[in-house]
Amino acid sequence: MSTEAALKDLRKEILTKNLPDLLDRKFLKIPENGEGDITVMQWNILAQGLSGGNDNFILCPPEALSWENRQLHMLEEIYRVGPTILCMEEVDCFSFLEEKLKPLGYEGKWVQKPNSPCLEMKGNMGPDGCALFYHKDKLQMVDTQAVNLKDNGKATNQTALVSKLKVKDNDHMLYVATVHLKAKSGYENLRHQQGKYLLDHLTKIAGSEPIIVCGDFNASPKEPVYQDFSNSDLGLKSVYREASAEKKEPKYTTWKIRAGSNGENTESCKTIDYIWIRGNLKLTAFWNIPDDATIGPNRLPSHKYPSDHFALACKLVFT
Length: 319
Hints:
The protein has about 325 residues and is α+β, with helices and mostly antiparallel strands. It has helices at about 5-15, 60-65, 65-80, 95-100, 190-205, 225-230, 240-245, 290-295, and strands at about 25-30, 40-45, 85-90, 105-110, 130-135, 140-150, 155-165, 175-180, 210-215, 235-240, 255-260, 265-270, 275-280, 280-285, 310-319. It has a single domain (about 5-319), classed as Endonuclease/exonuclease/phosphatase (Deoxyribonuclease I, Chain A). The strands form 3 sheets. Strands 1-14-15-2-3-5-4 form a 7-stranded mixed beta sheet. Strands 6-7-8-9-13-10 form a 6-stranded mixed beta sheet. A two-stranded antiparallel sheet has the order 11-12. Helix 5 (about 190-205) runs parallel beside helix 6 (about 225-230).
């Protein structure tokens, strides 16, 4: 079955449940760069085990966070992008995704977080982690490894999934890393060290091959880890910054409202998710991010979008 056919069937199911339409999004093309060879998607999907609790998403209707409803819009976002490479974080539903994506031609790999907070939640679906899915018609897995991100030689609770893939049409080799760095303010130095460790690892194994790094960095462009990736000897470039006429990152990739400890709601609007590329890869299109008015005053997640992070996606061509 194709992703287009799967999307058509899924929309029928969504209609029967009378769910609101998913936020409208589309690929914005860079005309002079031609068509893409591969489509890359990056998404922190919001672990189901982290979607509840008294301090979480206070303005989001509980039914919008129910797995029965949320998984439909999650699949819809994936199907309508139709990625060749799909990188995800906070995945506590890998077996579910594998079941849904395998009939469409995808194979997947997953590495769990060493100590997942999802397991502390009542009725959880299991630990969360990083996942990579790739379309078998276009790509062949050569090697994949789980990389524990270290802080000055000490293991941390964050991991990356690093894979070597071969493009079947032209035998190009390609390294893809999916990563989720430590969350919350006060951990800027830890994220910095985790990012340096991943960069060093990629430097050792990738040689001169093209690299794609996707992830929730939990870091704004002002943080040291972002600067390290921007200035690395690997020559990495941030896709959304490159696509911008001003050469700036988007205004936000996550926008949420939570209940604060003082009884007042706390709002967080920032850019912390990225797709980085290097080598003979040229950007031909990118998945637009909805504007403020479209998102609505209650922000994310909502009936119109199933995660507190927007999926990023791009089309790339080998040069």
